[in-house]
Amino acid sequence: MPDSLLLLLPDGTVADNSDAHVQVSLLPREQAVGHNIFAAYPSAPESQRELFESHEYVRQHLVPHTMPLLRYDLERPAEQGGGTEERYWQITHYPLFDEQGRLEYILQRPQDVTAQTLATRQVAEAAQALAESQARSQFILDSLPVMVWTNTPAGQPDYFNPRWLAFTGQTLPELQASDWHNLAHPDDQATLLAAWREALASGQPLQHEYRLRRHDGAYRWVLIQAAPRRADDGHLTMWVGSAIDIHAQRQMVAELLQANEQQAALAEQAYETYQRAESQRRTYDKLFNEVPALIAILRGPEHRYDFVNPAYQQVFPHRQLLGRAIAEALPEVAAQGLIGILNQVYATGQPFRDPALRVDLERQPGTPLQEVYVDLALQQFTEQNQPAGIMVFAVEVTDLVRARAELAELRARGTGGPGAAS
Fold first, then answer.
1. N or C: which end of the chain has fewer CB within 10 A?
2. Backbone angles phi and psi of 260, in degrees to 5
3. C-alpha triplet 166, 172, 176: angle, nearest 5°
4. 339 three-class SS
5. Distance from CA of residue 280 to its chain's centroid?
6. What is the reported pLDDT for 301?
7. Strand partners, 221
8. For 300, what's the count of Cα atoms within 13 Å in the CB-facing half-sphere?
9. pTM for the whole thing?
């Protein structure tokens, strides 16, 4: 018979099997016939229990019974190379009766469904991996302490992250349905629309500064950047944009210019220096992988690097960060008390923010530590309602801190402070 069949006596003794069954089971017929099925084809206790229960069902009810999917691996003979093959089977038992209607045999029909089972598992695993990747990407996008949005290829907004919603005080449906440029200051709307239409027409990135209305009605200067995302064939699939509040920076520059006209050159240099530093953290292209801010995910209580964006890695070009605990990867930072701050955020869930945290870093191997200031934000994230790690977002503000120090010195000179002429 071409099908794989095994004929059993009611007590489970092997009476015969087909050539196809011999080929599939990799066991010669003479080593099986006359032996109990569990002795002839040994398997795990769980598999034997399920087989016995199926036999018992047929014996009691005298009707066919199909078992749940069963894993039964096959041992290849040495002449066939040896080793174990992972195999899955769909097994059905049929009752066969004698002339008096009594149960004479149980016919077992095992169907090899290994290919279908493994294919189904691969599809499920791929779907789970995709879902986890999407969830992780969404978490990072929603956690960034900057305003992010996306547009269709035609320029219609279709997503705003929580930071944008909190700033404007509007819901996602409200923003999607409204003319977003109406949130700009009336004096800035014309130039904003012109810049956006030019970007849409050319397909080139956009960078623009304008005043955006906050939820309390106040207008704040923001810098926006929008970058086109293209498919492999070059056609535009979406726009990704970011907005950063630069109101304080613009005010600081204005104060520097008003402090002393003779110091205009210094003020301009300070502004340009700050703008160069700011451009690193407000450059957005393809979401977080090219965001200029320093972004990392530290996982577990040992604060092990699970994600590092290029801008973060660039600070430490000579070090391997991914997969290493921060105390191991950055020992000089750990020695400055950062581990205690991380431990507190991880344990309590309370965010940490320091707009001018000083850290001394080893920029190149073997060189002295350099004094660096960063605007640092730490935020705990959870998985299954348990602390899982910390989201790190930092922007280097060394030039800004130094500019503020220079401004303070200028003010002191202008008000008769130390060093003023008597």
1. C
2. -165, 115
3. 130
4. helix
5. 22
6. 95
7. 211
8. 10
9. 0.37
Portions of the chain given CATH number 3.30.450.20: 6-112, 144-245, 289-401
β-pairing, 370-383 with 386-396?
antiparallel
Nearest to 390 by CA among 301, 329, 330: 301
- State the pLDDT at residue 238: 93
pLDDT (0 to 100) of residue 291: 67
As a whole number of angstroms, the distance between CA 153 and CA 145 comes to 25
**Fold of the CATH domain 6-112:** Beta-Lactamase (3.30.450)
Tokens of 49: 């229990």
Contacts of 54 (CB under 8 A, 6+ apart): 65, 67, 91, 93
Residue 377 neighbours by CB under 8 Å, 6+ apart: 145, 351, 352, 353, 392, 393, 394
Partners of residue 93 on adjacent β-strands: 65, 108
Q: Which CATH superfamily hosts domain 289-401?
A: PAS domain (3.30.450.20)
Q: What is the pLDDT of residue 284?
A: 39
At residue 422, the pLDDT reads: 38
What is the per-residue pLDDT for 272? 65
**In terms of DSSP H, where are the helices of 144-263?**
162-168, 172-177, 189-202, 247-259
Give the separation between CA 177 and CA 158, rounded to whole angstroms: 9
What pLDDT is recorded for position 290?
Answer: 65
Given CATH 3.30.450.20, say whether it is the number of domain 144-245.
yes
Query: In a 10 Å sphere around its CB, with 0-12 CB exposed, 13-18 middle and 19+ buried, how is residue 131 labelled?
Result: exposed
pLDDT of 184: 93
What average pLDDT values come out for the chain (422 residues) when binned by 10 residues? 90 93 86 91 82 93 92 73 80 94 94 86 83 74 78 89 89 83 91 93 93 94 91 91 87 70 54 55 53 86 92 87 93 89 95 92 85 92 92 89 87 64 40
